[in-house]
Amino acid sequence: MAESWASSEAVRRSMKSNRSRDTGPELRLRSELHRRGLRYFVDRAPIKGVRRRADVVFPRKKIAVFVDGCFWHGCPEHFTVAKTNAEYWAAKVEANRARDRDTDRLLIDAGWTVLRVWEHEDVEGAADRIVRAIRPGSER
């Protein structure tokens, strides 16, 4: 068997079961946006030819929304360094953060508005921010 990045088979199974899309926080946010009458694309590359996918995309408004997990994206409030295989995970999270910054730059340079929502954020507050970006001047 090849050398595994996981510290144990149980950890490996747990990490492999993490979804890349349709996570609980994404589903709650999408449900709230839909409830407010917004229609959008899910898990879509905002820019053709660039292998970066946003969780929620409003192509006509050029708005890309990313729902970032606290562990995977290094939330300043909730991120804690893994106790097992700490060096690997610290490097992994830092690489994710660097890719996030690069993605933001690519999209902004192409004329997009990028919104990042932490998984722990209040869904209604996050939806309010998105609505304000889509409909400037609207309260909700």
UniProtKB/TrEMBL annotation:
The keyword DNA damage applies. Keywords: DNA damage, DNA repair, Endonuclease, Hydrolase, Nuclease. One of its GO terms (biological process) is mismatch repair. The keyword Cell inner membrane does not apply. It comes from the Bacteria. Residues 1-25 are annotated as: Disordered. One of its GO terms (molecular function) is hydrolase activity. Pfam families: Vsr (PF03852). InterPro entries: DNA_mismatch_endonuc_vsr (IPR004603), Restrct_endonuc-II-like (IPR011335). Belongs to the Vsr family. This is DNA mismatch endonuclease. It comes from Gordonia neofelifaecis NRRL B-59395.
